[in-house]
TrEMBL record:
Pfam family, one: ABC2_membrane
Coiled coil: none
Keywords from the named record: Antibiotic resistance, Cell membrane, Membrane, Transmembrane, Transmembrane helix, Transport
Membrane-crossing segments per the record: 25-46, 66-91, 112-137, 149-173, 185-207, 236-254
Record's subcellular location: Cell membrane; Membrane
UniProt name for this protein: Transport permease protein
Superkingdom in the source lineage: Bacteria
């Protein structure tokens, strides 16, 4: 078999292993998934009228706020789900299975590739679930074209890939699962200080640069524009640039750490 065939075969095996782990231990994924779902229900049904009046023209329209909120919560779901990837990678590194894999005749990079692809699959499924909840409570995307829907899906996958590689790096450098979970908290914290819940223009002036110059805000604004059929301006290029930069950073960081001598 060629080296490419071996890499594909071993990566497929590692992917199945990670999906089986997710199926046998669903509590971690479910706990992380509950955060965006609960925030969605909280901000719609408890704060929806107040928030919609505050960011609109003074009139309370919960349906408009649902349309504004759901795209941001979809990306927050990705950040939440990838924390499980950091924890899973850290557990593999500290429990000895990676040391065992190093002694076997398998493609070296297949371990990380399995984690990454498995996390992307789980994140996309989680996003679909949150999207179903959003539709159930009133979210509609009637103005988006088929091309915009395809672009929105591509952005979600690309953003998931970027955050997953960062999460893998965090898991590799963490001494245990608890540290990995703590190190990956920015993946949940950053959406909270982005345009997920309110527009950047509605924030205090000193805080606006913090919310604007981070990866989540342009991605959220791009996804929101694609799903609602509105203008995205320069946010599309910024979102793609952030995704590519984070993917490259996470990949080379993870590769360098993984190729070190076992700790």
């Amino acid at each position: 078999m060629s080296s490419l065939s071996l890499a594909v075969r071993d990566s497929s095996t590692m992917l199945r292993r990670n999906l089986l782990h997710a199926r046998r231990y669903p509590s971690l994924t479910l706990n992380l998934l509950l955060t965006p779902v609960m925030l969605l229900l909280l901000f719609v049904y408890i704060f929806g009228d107040v928030m919609s009046a505050g960011i609109g023209d003074g009139g309370a329209d919960r349906s408009e706020y649902i349309a504004y909120l759901v795209p941001g919560l979809l990306l927050m779901t990705i950040g939440s789900t990838t924390i499980g990837t950091a924890v899973s990678v850290s557990m593999d590194m500290t429990e000895g299975i990676i040391a065992r894999f190093r002694t076997m005749a398998i493609h070296r990079g297949s371990v990380l590739i399995g984690h990454v692809i498995g996390s992307v699959v789980q994140s996309v499924m989680s996003v679909l679930l949150v999207g179903v909840v959003g539709v159930a409570i009133g979210f509609r995307s009637t103005d988006a074209t088929a091309v915009e829907w395809a672009a929105a899906f591509g952005l979600l996958v690309l953003f998931t890939l970027a955050l997953t590689w960062i999460a893998v790096g965090m898991g590799l450098v963490s001494p245990n699962a608890e540290a990995a979970s703590n190190n990956a908290l920015p993946l949940i914290f950053l959406p909270l200080i982005s345009s997920t819940f309110v527009p950047v223009d509605a924030m205090p002036g000193w805080f606006q640069p913090i919310a604007e110059y981070q990866p989540f805000t342009p991605a959220i604004e791009t996804l929101r524009g694609l799903l609602l059929g509105t203008e995205i301006g320069h946010n599309g290029w910024l979102a793609v640039a952030w995704c590519l930069a984070l993917s490259a950073l996470g990949y080379f960081w993870s590769k360098a750490v993984f190729n070190r001598d076992p700790r």
